[in-house]
Design a protein that fits this description.
This protein has 226 residues and is mainly beta. It contains 1 helix and 15 strands, in the order βββββββββββββββα. The strands form 3 sheets. It has a 9-stranded antiparallel β-sheet, with no helix packed on it. A hairpin with a 3-residue loop joins strand 3 and strand 4. The C terminus is likely disordered.
């Protein structure tokens, strides 16, 4: 494992235990064990070159907890959705006859806010923070992404115009590579700054759309004899 350049199939066992309180709070404990985990890997070849390719690691174990709070409303026009995840990743593999491990706790915070200023004007703000993370042979440095949008409804709420912006506040993803006798650092540059406008027009009521979709699904089920 870890020496072949051709990835073999991987098999994973997963278990989750969750608790839900009404319609606004959820917490989940999760555990996953994967044999021959296929990961993005870095192999040193002749001439001090590093080749990036899929590769089987001996195992990958992930355990953690996810907490989600939805539809929190500090004031009437403001709704907040918050997700906090704590993950412990444990990777193991064999390289050049040595048993290697990469283990680390990773915090992941996701925030989504909605603002309804009037019946026609609204806005959204979301932010995702991913802390220092073990990923196979690599250690990925923290990253932050922020998205914002403003929306207006027109023509008796049939038309919706949205102006949105996306900013990857960490354009350079820094990665440290773990390998026997080798210390490597990789910078992956991502250009994820986006500014755009979206236009939507609703031709029929939502209930009619849902009913039409449900009938289509029933017809499709009959067609394939399920």
């Amino acid at each position: 494992k870890g020496e072949s350049t051709k990835a073999a199939p991987s098999f994973s066992d997963n278990i989750e235990l969750g608790y839900v309180y009404r319609d606004w709070f959820q917490t989940v404990l999760f555990f996953s064990h994967t044999d021959d985990a296929i990961m993005k890997s870095y192999r040193e070849q002749e001439g001090r070159r590093i080749y990036v390719m899929p590769q089987n690691l001996s195992f990958y174990v992930q355990t953690g907890m996810r907490v989600h709070a939805a539809n929190l409303s500090p004031v009437s026009f403001w709704k907040v959705n918050l997700t906090a995840i704590g993950i412990y990743n444990n990777y193991g593999w064999t390289e050049q006859g040595q048993k290697m491990k990469n283990r680390m706790f990773n915090p992941d915070i996701r925030l989504h806010e909605q603002f309804a200023f009037t019946s026609v004007w609204s806005a959204e703000l979301s932010a995702n923070y991913n802390g220092r993370m073990a990923y196979g042979q690599a250690t990925v440095h923290p990253a932050l992404e922020v998205n914002v949008g403003i929306q207006k409804k027109m023509f008796r709420n049939r038309c919706t115009v949205t102006l949105f912006a996306k900013d990857d506040s960490t354009p350079i993803i820094k990665i440290d590579i773990q390998s026997p006798g080798v210390q490597a650092f990789v910078d992956e540059r991502h250009n994820k700054r986006v500014l755009g406008i979206a236009f939507a027009w609703r031709f029929q009521k939502g209930s009619e759309t849902k009913e039409s979709r449900r009938k289509k699904e029933i017809d499709e089920t009959k067609r394939v004899n399920l």
